[in-house]
Amino acid sequence: MDSTDMRAHIQKQGISAVKTLEKNKRQIENFSENAEFDRIIINGAGDKYLVGLTASYLWRKFGREPLNVIHSRDLADNSPYMDENTLVIFCSQSGKTKDTMDAAKVVVENKAQSILITNLREAVPNSLWRLKKHGGEIFTTHTEIYPERSLPSTMTFQSTLSTLWHLLAELAGKNMFDELMTSAKLTDKLSYDNEIENNAKKMAEKLAKEQSARYVMGDGPRYGLARKLGLIMFMEGVKVNAFSLESEDFLHSAIETLEDENKMKLSNTIFMPPKKAAFRSNAEKLVKFWSDYGTVHKIEAPEGVSDLLSPQAQMVFPIWVSYHEALLRGIDPGLSHLVSKVRSTGF
Predict the structure, then answer these.
(1) 344 — pLDDT class (breaks 50, 70, 90)
(2) What's the CA angle centered on 217, arms 61 and 187, to 5 degrees?
(3) Per CATH, which fold does 6-187 belong to?
(4) Which of 231, 265, 262 is nearest to 245 (CA)?
(5) Residue 40: other Cβ atoms inside 10 A
(6) What span, in angstroms and rounded, lies between the C-alpha atoms of 79 and 174?
(7) What is the DSSP letter of 301?
(8) What Cα–Cα distance (Å) separates residue 182 from each residue in 63, 179, 216, 311?
(9) What's the CA gap between 335 and 1, in Å, rounded?
(10) Cis peptide before 302, with omega less than 30 degrees from 0?
(11) Fewer CB within 10 A of the terminal residue: the chain, N end or C end?
(12) Residue 286: which of 274, 297, 302 has the closest Cα?
C-alpha cells in the first residue's frame, strides 16, 4: 500500500537535514555577513508555512528586527508594506507552488529582497528560481531521495527547518551550527530506531480504533508540529478529521469541551515540551484534565533537546504514528487522490 515508499522518506529525513546543513553552511554564512534589512517576512504553503511558524521562535529569542510569518496565499492577496529593506524568505519544496509563485510576483513588484529555500536543485522555467534574476539568493535542500514523492514531504520539512534555523541564527549573529547539526544527527538516529517505530505502531493501533475526529495540541514552537500532524499527517495521510490547537489557548477556552454538556469527548494528542521548558507544568495539567474525561496521547520530546530545537527530533515519532495508522486503515500513506501539488505557470 505504500506506493510512494514513504517508509524510506521517513528513515532518510534526518540524514537529509544533516547533508543540507553541511552543503549550505558556507553560503548561509557568507550571505548573512553582508545582509542588511529592517524587517523579515517568511512565507510558504502547506507544511512549508509551518516550518516558518516553528523557526520563528528562534528569531523571537535572538533577533532584533520584526518578523512575520505569512501564508503565501495571504501574502499574495493581502500583501503588507514591503520595500527594498524588507527581506522575504520563501519556503517551497517544488519551487513551483502556485500560491508561493503568486506571492513572489508581489515581492518582486515591491522591490523587496528575497531568499528561496527549495528542494528544486536547478533553475527551470516557470519556477521560483526566477527570483535569482531579481537579485534573490537560493538555498537548496538536499534530500536523500530526489525528487521527494511522498505527499507529506517529510525529508523536505526537516531539511527546510534546518536551513531556516541556520539562516535565522546567522542573521541574528548567533553561531548555532554545531547545535543544529547535533539536532539533525539525533533526528537521523531516531528515524531508524526500531523501538520508536514499534511504540508508534502501538499508538497507531489505539488511534485506529477511535472515532475519526481528534484534537492535536502543541505549545510555542511545538504548535507548528501540532498543525503538521493534524492538518497534513492525519488529514492528508490518514484521511481523518483533526483539529490543531495551541495548548496555551486551550487552557482559557477549549477546555470547556470537557463539560458534561458536550457528550462527544474527542481524543487528544499533545506535543509535550521538554521537561525543563516553561510550559511543561501547564502541559501536564492538560494531560491530567483530558485523561479524567477521555483519551489522551502524549508525544514527548527526546531527552537532551532544547526548548527551541525540540520540534525537529520530536516530529519523528508522530510521523511513524500517522504512517502506521494509515496502513492499519488500509490507506496508502503518501498518496492523495483528490489533491495534488498545485503548480503555477510562472511570474
Answers:
(1) low
(2) 65
(3) Rossmann fold (3.40.50)
(4) 231
(5) 24
(6) 30
(7) P
(8) 22, 5, 27, 13
(9) 10
(10) no
(11) N
(12) 297
Query: How many angstroms separate the first and last alpha carbons of the chain?
Result: 38
Whole-model pTM above 0.90?
yes
All structural domains of the chain with their residue ranges = 6-187, 193-328
Q: Is the model's pLDDT at 119 over the cut of 60?
A: yes
Average pLDDT over residues 164-171: 98
Of the candidates 342, 154, 339, the one whose C-alpha atom is nearest the C-alpha of residue 236 is: 339
> 193-328 belongs to which homologous superfamily?
Glucose-6-phosphate isomerase like protein; domain 1 (3.40.50.10490)
Question: φ and ψ at 246, to 5 degrees?
Answer: -75, 130
Query: Exposed, middle or buried: residue 314 (CB in 10 Å: 0-12, 13-18, 19+)?
Result: buried
Q: Any idea which residue has 549573529 for its cell?
A: 173
What SS3 class is residue 218? strand
Residue 208 Cα distances to 25, 40, 73, angstroms: 42, 42, 34
pLDDT, the chain, mean: 94
Amino acid code (one letter) for 15: I
For residue 153, give every residue at least 6 positions away whose Cβ sits within 8 Å of its Cβ, in sequence order, or none: 46, 47, 93
Q: Name which of 329, 335, 247 is nearest 296 in CA terms.
A: 247
Taking the CB of residue 3, how many other CB atoms lie within 10 A of it? 11
187-238 pLDDT tens trace: 999 999 999 999 999 999 999 999 779 999 999 999 999 999 999 999 999 9
Place of cell 470547556: 256
